[in-house]
């Protein structure tokens, strides 16, 4: 059914980012405590949602981590009476919320109101039989629920709602997009289908909390926190979980004994460098997960990388995970993007659309290589939004000017200060629609002078490249680093060509005629690999773009030849 003005489409454009209908991913699927027949929680009102979005990054993370510590994960039989399961669990304490999902069978995430309920449940749970394999007696918060008399209890089974943990295929997405009434609506539909759901976010924090249980065996004051796409509001369903082992709580103890006539401190192992300490810590935690961690598989210790890490598959939640140590600058980058994502609903909608477009056309890839990364692409979108008139989001320097005393952070000699309170940032006066922004993004970067200029989010303006990398995007904090240094010239030229082609399609298409002919239009047309459909039209369109690209390459070669000749003369 098409989205109509004044209906769900307008709600989306107001930034609520939810679609009506039983199949919407935006609807709250978590069920509150009580009988299983109780309806799913209602969608929060607009005032409640705005209130939630105004919370600082640190406040949101603290709430999520606390929530995860009160949560268990239960592997369930394929046929189950939901009400009876909840009744049993309620005997150990109030079940605040729960949901079911499919991952190697049916699993249930259960959130208790109190941590003590988990201890009560653990005391009542049995150790698995060791008839075939000897078990490692580590009591985690992962359980298996079985039926003693499955034949009779199958008669009492109730249908379960399973929360989706992956996004729909692009083909199905295109079909949905064609039913919208504008490109803006299409972009919000894509956002709703691809963004992390409430349930998926809870699973990510639970995965971190379960790893933390192992880490605390060695480091009692440590925490394990997610960073990157899991927390910056730009995460996509199916993305990996980046997490880091944080010792900042340990550092707080260092100042406690400074007062008075004496000092007392812990005796600790001393190592010649922080890097060596990080490598040894990760090596031990990696071995611990590999040998004793329920559901932790394919553990790889990559300790000689620039940022040492442990990669592993967390099978109970279905995530691929990367664990590092005290990645403070990465956390600041996550918070910066969180702020940008919260300031204006158009920001996230544009980023998700551009990243989906880039993936369809092979401009990005989950494997390391010479292509543009999602992080680099996100930074390009942010820079574009800073360059609008008036700007849609502020520069990093402007956010730094608003920073209070608590917001000041110097990490490794780099100034990572910026305001954390969203209420201090004035909303933009820019009223451009997403239709305009999408087209203008392709136009802007299709004609960007990458040979001369670089992208700087701190200044919010084009500056001369400090070195000759094809694509130069300044790291927002570590200003001596280029976050897109991996991108080579052919990949950049491919991006430029795709951007120009996309701008051409949006400018020249006849939406009405395409809808009559039941052809993809708007964003949907951009999500079909160019040349697969209407190949003859594609060839005609590419002639102009191809000739411009060739002309640009010839000009570049002439400049290089002239430069070489001058050097030869100089010699």
Helix content: 40-55%
User: What is the number of E strands?
Assistant: 14
Strand order of the largest sheet: 1-3-4-2-5
**Count of helical segments?**
20
Protein name: Mitochondrial poly(A) polymerase
Organism: Junco hyemalis (Dark-eyed junco)
Domain Poly(A) RNA polymerase mitochondrial-like central palm: 183-341
GO molecular function: metal ion binding; poly(A) RNA polymerase activity
Structure characterization notes:
With 571 residues, this protein is of the alpha+beta class. The protein is 43% helix and 12% strand. It has 20 helices and 14 strands. The chain has helices at residues 8-13, 46-53, 57-69, 82-90, 116-124, 150-153, 170-177, 183-194, 198-218, 248-252, 274-292, 328-343, 345-360, 374-386, 396-401, 434-446, 489-508, 511-516, 523-526, 535-570, and strands at residues 31-32, 71-76, 95-102, 106-112, 142-144, 223-227, 241-246, 296-302, 309-314, 319-325, 410-411, 414-415, 453-456, 461-464. A five-stranded mixed β-sheet has the order 1-3-4-2-5, with helices on both faces. Strands 6-7-10-9-8 form a five-stranded mixed β-sheet, with helices on both faces. The protein has a two-stranded antiparallel ribbon with strand order 11-12. Strand 13 (453-456) and strand 14 (461-464) form a beta hairpin. Helix 3 crosses helix 9 and helix 12 (328-343) packs across helix 13. The radius of gyration is 26 Å and the shape is globular. The protein starts with 7 loop residues before the first helix and ends with a helix. The model is unreliable at 1-24, 33-52, 533-550 and 556-571 (pLDDT under 50).
